[in-house]
Amino acid sequence: MDFLLRIAIALLVLIVAGFSWASARKILGPWHRLPLDFALAMLTATYTFGCGILYLFQIEYLHRFYGNGAFLPTRTSFTLILALAALPYLVVPWSTVVIAGFGRAGLPARIARAQALPPIRYDSLIIASLIILIGSGLILAPVLPTLASNALGDLFSITSAASLYTQRQLVFQNVTFLQGGIVYSVLPSLAAVILFWPGRWVFLSRVSGIALAVFATLMNLGMFQIGPTLSFFLTCTFCYFATRGGKVRTLAVAVVTSMVLIILTLYSTIKVTGNQLSQIELFLMRLPIPLPYLIQMASEKPNVDSEFISLPHELGEYMFPELRSAQRFVAMPQPAYIDAWFTYHPVISLAVLVLIGGMIVWFGNRLALSGFGSGGRNSRLILWASVAAPTLYYAFQVDIFALFTSAYSVTFVILPAIGILIVNRMMEEAVPAEMHQTSGLNRD
Prior knowledge:
mainly alpha
């Protein structure tokens, strides 16, 4: 009887959340709907679905997932888990609607002015890409042999999650923050830009983009990370739909689904656990599974010292205290709004969700100004799409400060786009475009 009641409550929450999302997107323009749908779809796949499973099956599921590998919390609230899972669907869509409404009147004039801008030169893409690649190569040179060896050899010798974490820790001791940012964010972002660059030199762009994507994937696997590879694929998916005005095609959805399954299969080969869970289940539950422990840990924290220094690491040590004594670490990251809820205050959590709504509006405006819906002929559309996708993906994967300061942050992701725009501006001032009409390199 209790289980049937939980199903009924979960369905009611699902209907309310879905109605909120659908109602808000009807008000928004297509350039705002795409980033909103992308952000909430990523949240649904990586967090909300798992929270629903926890609410329905509760302690029994925790035992199934961890077995004897972790203690079972006795003072947690699965009702709170369901409420927290539904919160973004009530706040983010309507925050997006309200914030988008402030600039709606002047947007058509801004779009008209933006469309009058000259196209980005192809030689600007080449020069900026070479500068970024040469600089990245020099910075990565000390660790390049190690990462290549890890990706091509040591990676597939891993037999357990414990050995995976040990290998990661060894890599992190030798890789600097800047090197991590290049591997996780700069190279994948640049690969997506080159891969989807429009214009006359499409074949050259596709080949170069694929080659860089393969190299970036190898470097990420050399860091014993599969997450950035998934983020890169999602970025490519976002870029594809952005160039088509957000229109969804059945074939494209089938290809995306197949590629996600392939990536998750690879994920399962390098993150083996002893409980025989499928790779899809591991992926769906990796973020929500610590939430019951987090609720209990927060209830045990003294009120006079309510802020956590590093919630992911403290939560990892709380769940697996034996790791502290063994001087090993494991982080249990949570979405930005969950981190803010338990680290600071529920009001701060709501502010984070409103901020995410603001980011959706900002990126949506950039897409609109870059010719969204015009067939993807404006290369500026790809520049901003390559920044929007990983930013909105990680907004529901890491805390809000890490979103702007970590190796996964927008600070690194935006570097290729900013670099290309700066080089293009310098090229325009040095050599006006009309002096190169006989060359195809100045066209995007």
